[in-house]
Amino acid sequence: MFTILVFLSLVCGLEGADVVLSCSLIEEGGGTGGMMSGAMFTRTPSTLVFRDLVGNQGLSEELVTPYEPPETPNADDLIFELSLRSIQIPNADLLLHADCNEQEVVCEVSRYVPRGADLDSLPAHFIGSVQLDGGGLSLTLVLQTLHSETQSDTQPLIQSKLDLPLSQSGTLQTEVVFVVFSRVPSIAAPIGGDVLLDCGFRQKESVPGQDVALEWRIQHRGNGRKILDMKARQTEADVGQDPVFVDREGASAEADLLVRDGNASLTLRRLKVSDEGTYICTVGSGEFQTQQIVHLHITQPPRITLSEEKLIFQDTTPQKLSCHCHRYYPLDVQVEWFSQEPSEEEPVSLSKDSSLSSHRQHSDGTYSLSSHLTLRPGENPPGTVITCRVSHSTLETPTDVALTVDKPEPQTVLWTIVLMLVISVFFLYQAFKGAEN
Description:
Largest sheet: 7 strands, mixed, barrel
């Protein structure tokens, strides 16, 4: 994936603010590759200009930097001018603030052929992918070229690579006619819980009774399968739908929300480790079909216990202390040991003296692991605090479990027992002698 820094410009207009993104036009071919190099692609620098992407109410004039097209239009420049007159993109303001939030944007454009059309058909179509690095918004846009208005006695400038007419300012004017989006392209959820995988679409216009097709697939570690497949349509009285294919128990999507609101989200209930993966939401309506990707990460924090509740050295015999990490996911976990004597201000690491068991995988896909540490009384006097510290991706901060070395128990109980035995033996002896006399 080609990632570049986003630069933003705001243009005060009657309706809203424009957003300008640095992008790349992706085309097949260009270069020679052997059998191991796979398909070859060329990348040509380009620019996407979203017209009136968000409202400009409340924008500070100091923040507004007008977008200026090239003074002299150039046939080699690739400037896609996107009109959003008929489609509203949810959470579009995230693109507006990406630069201030120090977020990068992945932006790519390539040719697109609608169903039933040819590559050279007019109007021409392009597909654009815009993703905020780190999540927040992901868009897949279908762009349709608009007729460029020029003076009757002036021949339009033709873009050298695309062989398409440009506007008088040197931009390729397009309109967004279809978009599939996700406002949460990556999400983490716990085992046993429920999750909503966000996906939606908007289109310029829909024909009454036209089918809207939705498919959800999962890809994970080279394997893939279909989770859900549905087709629905808006009728005069209600929402009609064909039988729904569901391959995963507890998976569902709402046909009425799909048709009326463009809500293509997938609900998964009672999550398992096997639900983790990359989910592909594909929406088709009329001549357009495109998709969005949502990453689902399954999580389970470890339950951490020590093998002993208290630690007492009665003699010079070393003792083993174990730190158990129970049923966590994903796999990677780090265990550290520390000791701190009462006279010390900072704990001392004991990790180099510890040993780890192998990971144990349970039937539900979670893992367990134990770390063992041998402690010697001469090195750990009473009052020493022994700490096991566990780090895992599900924990915001490492979790500590600790115990304190106690003083040896006094031997008074033992001597009391011995004394009672001596007294008992004495009385028995006296009783025996009395019986003889």
